[in-house]
Request: fold
Amino acid sequence: MSKASAFLAPNADPITGGRTLLRLATAGSVDDGKSTLVGRLLFDTDSVFVDTLDHVEQVSKRKGLDRADLALFTDGLRAEREQGITIDVAYRYFATTARKFILADCPGHVQYTRNTVTGSSTADVIVLLVDARKGVVEQTRRHLAVASLLRVPHVVLVVNKIDLVDYSEDVFTAVATDFALLARSLGVLDTHCIPVSATEGDNVVTRSVRTPWYDGPTVLGYLENVDDTRLAVGSDLRFPVQHVVRPQSATPAPWAARAPKVNGDYRGYAGKIESGRVSPGDEVVVLPRGSHAIVEAIDTPDGPLDLAVAGQSVVIRLDTDIDVSRGDVLAATDAPPAPLKDLTATVCWLAERELTTGARVLVQHGTSITKAVVKSIEGALDLAFEAGTVPCWRPTSSLTLNDIGRVRLALASPMPVDTYREHRATGAFILVDDADGWTLAAGLAGSTPFTAMTADVPRSDQHQSAQQGKPS
Amino acid sequence: MKDALLRPLSELQALESESIHIIREVAATLASPVMLFSGGKDSVVMLHLAAKAFWPAPIPFGVLHVDTGHNFPEVLQFRDEAVEFYGASLKIASVQDYIDDGRLRERPDGTRNPLQTVPLLDAITEGRHDAVFGGGRRDEERARAKERVFSMRDEFGQWEPRNQRPELWSLYNGRHLPGEHVRIFPLSNWTELDVWDYIAAEKINVPTIYYAHERQVILRDGMWIAITGVTPARTGEVVEVRSVRYRTVGDMSCTAAVLSVANTVQDVINEVGLSQLTERGATRADDRLSEAAMEDRKREGYF
Reply:
């Protein structure tokens, strides 16, 4: 049993070299074998420790099983053990020499769109399961629609329990064909299907001899090789400012002797690059005000950078002393988002309480937060759609838990919101209850892959039209 | 602009940037944060990340240690040196004080870990802290795997695992009612091996007891317990001198050593990579009390 360290290559730079990070989310119905698949991935990559294994073996024996129930590796809270269900998204970690994986393990109950949305929001890859005996079912369509809405770049379909259909190529091909049609109709671009038996270990980490007709990668092989280059620098620079760095002239801590010296009049903007890349000399626009400046330097305690890319936390210095504060966004001058006060968006409603027209909420976007009023609810997405069709919007006056709806929001102050289809990080926002702070909804600004497919909902694609900055 | 050949961030770059982003969000959106600091490896990595997050300005909040009175002297010395090195200010909540004046009573089994909860919650209330950074990682334990990065606590400091806020993208929501506070776990996505890889890459000092050294130990319930004033040998137990190290540095009464000859960071990384026991399973007697031990303590307001 050996787990891979992040930098095995002897000459790799200890921080920038070594393997990369990939974020996954699972989805599937109850009894599709999701826990077993995750258990199998952890077990076969040596990510399970002996004491956990002991625990699993003991419990399996108590339950009268003759071998370890892999699903128990992901066994969580006591209430779940007592009821035999999974309550909440759990995070698992495993790694190979190529990549480290963060897996958001989402429960599969029908009503838990909330968990799938949460897990998918950060995912690079969705691992979607079906039972080979049942094929694509309503829950598969629902999960894939959510993956499409949230623009998860890759979806891998695990056709599980292939052992229970005698490793039949015909069964697999039929499921894969159904799935490809569904994916195309939902606008999901990159998909792949793998025949798997999680219980027996076929094609999870080890290639199976019982599926000689399948010549694609195993689940782990797929995850190790799926393209992540465009994840790094998908598009134009978006840099929400977290805080302004103005060190007062206190005696620096001994630690700071390792870092570069700075002047007493230092002024920089700390943040994480949400998309794109930036270099000294680049022109940026400061949103929502719209003033322009040139990037003078990109500072880090490890020294200045010539280039910083999406995902990096840095401090940016500008050539002029313009007014920049927390909540502002430094953006590429090429097609920056227009600050808007009238926001049309899809929201995934995640709270027990209802949303109705006229509700007052907070909109948290990037590093800024503003008050908003729900002007109208234009429809709710019907996820229980039939095979061969796509989800459509039905008229509604309110949204309840697990609903996905189209809403129009009037913002108290303009926000530079991107369209979610183009910028996942800065097209996203959350709605927060001002009274108790609860997170109410996940918001996706602009049009969805499904808006064009519906005729009955007017005004659904007016994001970034001429309304910028106008009070409503 | 669209250079497809650019390499994505490495794992450690991505984890470091994510943690720095979290720490900055807390300082910007919450009124009075405090960082728990025990001198253990996770908390020193967290403090190092805080120093990097605010550079070239100093860390804008203090650190808090809940001292059980049974800490390893090497770790306490390291704690004070590290706090000074990173320019932080230290506050200590002392379990011993609570025992001395009768507010807490020593447990029959002698372990003081569960006793930390009350002094911790009192210190949070007294300091009016609305955000408390902890070094917990989701890979440590089953209950932790479900915890959010921003984890709400009610006015009794309790965690309600069945009623957690959804956490989407990297939009962290720390809004709360008066009396509630938020526990923040910037290392949520790090594993034990990531922590060691980062300690090596960043040349971060950790207490010496993480590295192999000779010590008088006894084998009790399958765990190597050091002979100290708190944990004397019992009748019939055989005291041996062994080369050991610690994987966690909790309270002496409930933290066991592992047999090891790893005396450099690289040796430790190799050992952790090969290790067959989880960190907590190997060395934390308090998690063995019951199957749901950690979950129970977390619900009560433990770290």
Observations:
- Residues 185 and 444 of chain A are 20 Å apart (CA to CA).
- Residues 238-332 of chain A form a domain with the Elongation Factor Tu (Ef-tu); domain 3 fold (CATH 2.40.30.10).
- Chain A has three domains: 20-232, 238-332, 340-453.
